[in-house]
């Protein structure tokens, strides 16, 4: 039996765990290590305290070690359900865990574009976040893959850095209108390059010059178990108060799954705020 179960091993979840365990709450973090979007980031240089770039995997592993050293229990598995009885019951990998409070910090998984060799070039020209990685493509041509407003927003972010931004809808009709960017609707046949992205090939034989390919085909919705509990959403994002409370008493959320600016610093801050709220919530329960 735990005081709090945290779902997600990313910056928001681990940040929260550090606060709750230091406050004397028995804390369990459940998640699959290295699965999230941050794990795909080749180098991060916009996070406070690191004078040299750090890889996403390296940062995640350091966070897990820090939490474990403080006494947080870590379980590598995917949560399949949350149920509420007298306590919360969380199921993962055939096992059942109970707690007084739950934090959902599952992030927002971004959809792959389904382009051949897309995975091979992740961190070598393929990115899923313009704010995170646009800096590395200053003065270089890039493409954004996607057919909706999300793709257009990423292109707008990149136009201040890249020498040219081209939008590729990969075989679908665009849902946006723009006069600012060249748009190709043909299907993408592949990525050109040996070690890094050097161009994008289209089915009609066109080669689009690009050193970076930014995938912006939308984001997956937050986990189904949250919806089954009746937790309120705003679009794809879990609806929370400024302190990380959801509409379901005892369940909190933080990080990319609540929307907003998708950055490590934001997730860490939200995890800390939710941690403080969870500490107060659990202490009040014990007083009763």
Given the C-alpha coordinates, what overall shape results? elongated
* CATH level 4 superfamily of the largest domain: FAD/NAD(P)-binding domain
Q: Alpha-carbon distance between the termini?
A: 18 Å
Helix percent reads 10-25%
Give me the number of helical elements.
6
CATH fold field value of the largest domain: FAD/NAD(P)-binding domain
Summarize this, please?
The protein has 288 residues and is an alpha/beta fold.
Characterize the structure shown.
- This protein has 288 residues and is of the alpha/beta class.
- The chain folds into two domains: 2-109 and 219-287, FAD/NAD(P)-binding domain (3-Layer(bba) Sandwich); 126-215, FAD/NAD(P)-binding domain (3-Layer(bba) Sandwich).
- 24% of the residues lie in helices and 26% in strands.
- Strands 1, 2, 3, 4, 5, 6 and 17 form a seven-stranded mixed β-sheet that branches. Strands 7-14-8-9-10 form a five-stranded parallel β-sheet, covered by helices on one side.
- Helix 4 (149-158) links the parallel strand 8 and strand 9.
- The longest helix is centred in the C-terminal third of the chain and has 24 residues, at 264-287.
- The two termini are 18 Å apart.
Descriptors:
single chain; 288 residues; alpha/beta; FAD/NAD(P)-binding domain; 2 domains; seven-stranded mixed beta sheet; five-stranded parallel beta sheet; 17 strands; elongated
Question: Secondary-structure blueprint of this entry?
Answer:
Layout: E1 2-7, H1 11-22, E2 27-31, H2 56-70, E3 73-76, E4 79-84, E5 88-92, E6 95-104, E7 126-127, H3 130-133, E8 141-145, H4 149-158, E9 164-168, E10 182-184, E11 188-192, E12 199-202, E13 207-209, E14 212-215, H5 224-228, E15 233-234, E16 237-238, E17 251-253, H6 264-287
Parallel strand pairs: 1-2, 1-6, 2-3, 6-17, 7-14, 8-9, 8-14, 9-10
Antiparallel strand pairs: 4-5, 5-6, 11-12, 12-13, 15-16
Helix pairs in contact: 1-2, 1-6
């Amino acid at each position: 039996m735990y005081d709090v179960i945290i779902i997600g091993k990313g910056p928001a979840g681990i940040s929260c765990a550090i606060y709750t365990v230091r406050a004397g709450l028995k804390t369990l973090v459940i998640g699959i290590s290295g699965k999230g979007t941050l794990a795909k980031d080749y180098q991060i240089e916009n996070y406070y305290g690191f004078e040299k770039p750090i890889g996403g995997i390296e940062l995640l592993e350091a966070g897990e070690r820090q939490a474990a050293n403080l006494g947080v229990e870590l379980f590598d598995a995917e949560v399949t359900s949350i149920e509420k009885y007298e306590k919360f019951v969380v199921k993962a990998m055939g096992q059942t865990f109970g707690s007084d409070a739950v934090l959902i910090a599952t992030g927002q998984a971004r959809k792959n574009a389904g382009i051949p060799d897309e995975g091979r070039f992740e961190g070598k020209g393929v990115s899923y976040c313009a704010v995170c990685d646009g800096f590395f493509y200053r003065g270089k041509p890039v493409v954004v893959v996607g057919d909706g407003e999300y793709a257009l927003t990423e292109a707008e972010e990149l136009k201040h850095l890249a020498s040219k931004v081209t939008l590729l809808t990969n075989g679908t009709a665009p849902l946006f209108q723009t006069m600012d960017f060249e748009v190709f609707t043909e299907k993408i046949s592949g990525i050109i390059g040996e070690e890094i992205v050097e161009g994008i090939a289209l089915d009609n034989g066109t080669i689009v010059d690009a050193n970076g390919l930014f995938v912006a085909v939308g984001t997956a919705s937050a986990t189904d178990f949250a919806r089954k509990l009746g937790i309120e959403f705003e679009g794809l994002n879990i609806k929370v108060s400024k302190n990380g409370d959801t509409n379901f008493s005892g369940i909190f959320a933080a990080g990319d799954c609540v929307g907003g600016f998708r950055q490590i610093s934001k997730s860490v801050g939200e995890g800390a705020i939710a941690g403080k709220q969870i500490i107060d919530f659990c202490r009040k329960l014990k007083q009763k």
